[in-house]
Amino acid sequence: MLAAHTVADVRRAEQGLADDTGWDVLMQRAARGLADILDDRLPPGATPVVLVGPGHNGGDALFAAAHLGERGRRVNLCLLDPDRVHGPGLAAALAAGASVVDSPRGHTHLVDAVFGIGARPGLEGPAAEWARWQREEDPWTLAVDVPSGVDVDGGTLPGEHLLADVTVTFGTLKPALLLGPAADAAGDVVLVDIGLGPHLATPAVETFTPDDGPPAGHRMTGDGPEHKYSRGVLGVAAGSEAYAGAAHLVVAGAQAGPAGMIRFAGSAELGRRVVDRAPEVVAGPGRVQAWVVGPGGDDGTAELVRAALTEQVPVLLDATALQSLPDRFDVPALLTPHAGELARMLGVSRDDVDDDPWGHARAAASRWGATVLLKGRRTLVVPPEGPTRANRSGTRWLATAGTGDVLAGLAGAWLAAGLTPLEAGSVAAHLHGAAGVRANPGGPVTASGVAAAVPAVTADFLAGDLHRVRDW
Ligand SMILES: NC(=O)C1=CN([C@@H]2O[C@H](COP(=O)(O)OP(=O)(O)OC[C@H]3O[C@@H](n4cnc5c(N)ncnc54)[C@H](O)[C@@H]3O)[C@@H](O)[C@H]2O)[C@@H](O)CC1
Ligand SMILES: Nc1ncnc2c1ncn2[C@@H]1O[C@H](COP(=O)(O)OP(=O)(O)O)[C@@H](O)[C@H]1O
Ligand SMILES: [K+]
User: Ranges for the YjeF N-terminal domain (predicted)?
Assistant: First the structure.
């Protein structure tokens, strides 16, 4: 797992480490890591300009500039406020040959060390002018710790900010590097270990990494006897006269998951059509370990939600079912809205959700006592309490009709197999995104094609060997 911590937790961890090592050691580790990455990423002979702010973020970059100078590279410095700058850092950079310049204009390579975790979101004055210059001249940019001006804890972009191709962050990731619109401002994220690990609290956000193996708790790797019921039975109540395809796609997603059996609940006619295409499915009533209700539903969905909830098993509610929520859930529940559906649930606008996806997903998780999987370019899975999972797999080609239905079926199958809503939602989102890439790397996909790619991607994931998970 890759982890992100809030500013307050980072500050506490830094203090804990500094109590052992002294503050200088932290900054020197950060600066050396930064210099090594800059050395690696800057073209030979390129002269970067470093935008230097008043705090330790600027200090990190000034010591890194000193390392680069000692290694023979020219570095230019632009100071936000010459009266407020990290003194020892500036002295070291100048001693190593760096020069102070008045303006970043004309530079093709930029290092953003204006503000780090001490930042108030939104840039003003000369820093805002730097942001406008950056948009105009579009230099390659490396951000130090975070892109300056973003909301580090919330991942929103409330004002002027800088953009990065690469962000080099220290000790642990920050939420803004993994979620919300801010994550798109951060580019590739590279973590420099400064030894914070033992001092860090529970993360605010986590994400799967390629060597994360099978999640604990699913019924496939239990010690007891394995048979179809021990793997869990998933009930699917999806599709309608108008949206028959949703029934097929939810079933296709579910069949790509670990559940032992799928029961289809719906009209006799739709049930026949589902079984014609997927003869493994049983149409008709019976016991299940989890329900998926809602994709492609009609007026009857509210009753299906009510019926599923009386069975006291975990439920996944999607699409139409999101309009028939109980006041609070008394069973484990996974809600899978896209931004428009979440906006409707909360009585806000879609733009509100797009501007602050994490805040709104957290509000819904706490309002309903459910885990909220908010779909989008960066899908989030937010439990009522504890770390959020930010999904990093996928491709923009997944934004096509029916892929959400496949995801609902897949997540439902993991729920039926015994995972918690958080684990089921985040495993399914990870596999679904990776399957979107594998279905047709770099090009368009269909929802059915994504479902077909899931089983092989799942095998790699279970082996801790799923590497190519995204196309962006
Ligand atoms: N605490 C430490 O010793 C370490 C900190 N590190 C670096 O230090 C950074 C944090 O340093 P600081 O706490 O000095 O804070 P920053 O360097 O992020 O910000 C410095 C100051 O700028 C001002 N400021 C912030 N946002 C502003 C805005 N939007 N407009 C105008 N002024 C604004 C504030 O007064 C703030 O305290 C980290 O991001 C990281 O880069 C690393 O060197 C590792 C060790
Ligand atoms: N811009 C995007 N980049 C990557 N994935 C996306 C993007 N937009 C949507 N997705 C993914 O595509 C799927 C669409 O689901 P949904 O909106 O429910 O569509 P549908 O209802 O047609 O199935 C989700 O898994 C979502 O995370
Ligand atoms: K920065």
Answer: 10-202
